[in-house]
């Protein structure tokens, strides 16, 4: 039974275990925020070109990582219920992130709405895996989510302006750096978990 659940977990969460594909996205978010923070003038065409090339390079690295996983571990085709969950959560997450961004740039809130959404996304991944595979997996996701929640409410806890201690000009930029780094950690952790749980092969796996 334990082996069957382990296989079910790997198949249903295979995309989240391909952690090296997530690392470039987290780095792109964090580095874009650092770049925006470093600007002392209105961004010009050269500035935009440089950061665009950097982000494009990181996305290319993510693509290379996905090819690596397909070559070394094969493909895992999740069942339709899992794919439907992913579609719904992705669309809902995108809508919430857009709304949260609007709140953060429009109002001086004692918390970061975008940070709360980003942390919630990590928590959703954990509950998704636990529900689909009927077990406790990806326990590092709740830990990372807790860190994201805590940082997002620091102003409400009496630490208004905490980001200035790190040389950042706004809470939004600071949260983007933090969430980006949390996603990097989640990606690395997921990759290490995959290498322990799944031997390398080139077979296609089905639920």
List strands and helices in order, with pairings.
Layout (H helix, E strand, L loop, with lengths): L1 H11 L1 H4 L1 H20 L6 H29 L1 E3 L2 H27 L6 H21 L6 H13 L18 H27 L6 E3 L1
Parallel strand pairs: 1-2
Helix pairs in contact: 1-6, 3-4, 3-8, 5-6, 6-7, 6-8, 7-8
Q: What is the beta-strand fraction? A: under 5%
Estimate nothing, just give the exact number of structural domains.
Answer: 1
Shape: globular
SS class: mainly alpha
Low-confidence stretches: 202-207
- Helical content (DSSP H or I, runs of 4+): over 70%
So how many helices? 8
The biggest sheet, with number of strands, parallel, antiparallel or mixed sense and barrel status, is: 2 strands, parallel
From the N-terminal CA to the C-terminal CA, the straight-line distance is 15 Å
Structure description:
Helices cover 73% and strands 3% of the residues. It has helices at 2-12, 14-17, 19-38, 45-73, 80-106, 113-133, 140-152, 171-197, and strands at 75-77, 204-206. It has a two-stranded parallel sheet with strand order 1-2. Helix 3 packs antiparallel against helix 8 and helix 7 (140-152) packs antiparallel against helix 8.
Please name the defining characteristics of this protein.
207 residues; mainly alpha; 73% helix; 3% strand; disordered C terminus
Concise overview:
By secondary structure, the protein is mainly alpha-helical.
